Amino acid sequence: MLIPSIDLMDGKIVQLVQGQRKALEFDDFEEWIVRFASYPLVQLIDLNAALRNGNNRALLDRFTTRLVCQVGGGIRSLQDAADVLARGAKRIILGSVLIKDNAIDLTTAEEFAEHFGSERLTFAVDSKAGQVAIQGWRETTSISPAEMMKSLEPYCSAFLYTHIDGEGLMKGIPLDVVRALRAVTSRQLIVAGGITTQDEVNRLHQMGLDAVVGMAIYSGRMKLEPTQV
Q1: Catalytic residue set
Q2: DSSP, residue by residue, 71-87
Q3: CA 153/CA 163 separation, integer angstroms
C-alpha cells in the first residue's frame, strides 16, 4: 500500500530534506486533499509540534474530516493524544515519548495502549546511522530499530520506520534494512525515507511492507492515478 504523506509546518504543507532543509512548500490544501482522497490511509505530521516550536493542531481537522489519517508530531501526553483523536485521526503516531533516559519506556507505551487501545497506535522508529533518533531527529540514542520494535510490539498495531539517512533525497530506501525489520515484528510495518518510484512501492508490497511517499509525489517524480494504492 502506498501512503501519501502530508507534513505541516507554519501553516503550510512542506517537504524537508532529512528533516532539516525545506525543499518544497504549498499552501493549497484542497489540491492535495482531492488527490489523496481515494487512498485508504494518509500520514499527517505536525512538524512544528515535533520540533517544539508551536503546532498546527487547529489545521488537523481540515484533513482528518476528509481523509483517513494517522497523525503524528509532538504527541507527548495522553491529553495530546485525546485531542488529536478527537479531531478525527484514525490512529496517532508516537515516537519520542516512548524513549526516556536512552531507554525504551514500556510503562508509557502500556499507558497509551490502555487508554486508547493498541489498534489506534502507530509507533515511530526513526533511524539515523542505524540508531533510533528522537526529538525531531535531533537526538540519537543507542537503541537499535529492531530492539525498539521487539520491545514495543504488544502495545501498538503498526510501526512506522523512517530511514532518516535517505529522507527527502529520492535515492530509494535500502531494501536489505527493511527486509530484516519485517522479520522482527508481526505488526503492520510502514516504511519511509527516499522511496521514489511505483516499482519500489510494489517491491516493498511484495515484502509485506507499506510505503510512505512524500517528496517523490510533491516534486512530480512519482505520478499518481486517482485510485492508485
Answers
A1: 7, 126
A2: EESS--SHHHHHHHHHT
A3: 19
* Residues of the chain with confidence (pLDDT) below 50: 227-229
Q: Is 172 within the bounds of a domain?
A: yes
Residue 216: strand, helix, or coil: helix
**Other C-beta atoms lying within 10 Å of the C-beta of residue 153:** 16
Question: What is the model's pTM?
Answer: 0.93
> Counting beta carbons within 10 angstroms of the beta carbon of residue 114, is it exposed (0 to 12), middle (13 to 18) or buried (19 or more)?
exposed
Tell me the CB-side half-sphere exposure of residue 152, using CA atoms within 13 A: 35
Max Cα-Cα span within the chain: 45
Pairing of strands 131-134, 99-100: unpaired
Record the cell numbers describing residue 103, joined without a space: 531507554
What range defines the domain where residue 94 resides? 2-218
Is residue 228 situated within a structural domain? no
Provide the domain count of the chain. 1
**Going by DSSP bridges, is the β-strand pair 210-213/188-192 parallel, antiparallel, or unpaired?**
parallel
Judge whether 63 lies within some domain. yes
Over residues 11-55, the pLDDT tens digits come to 999 988 876 778 889 999 999 999 999 999 999 999 999 999 999
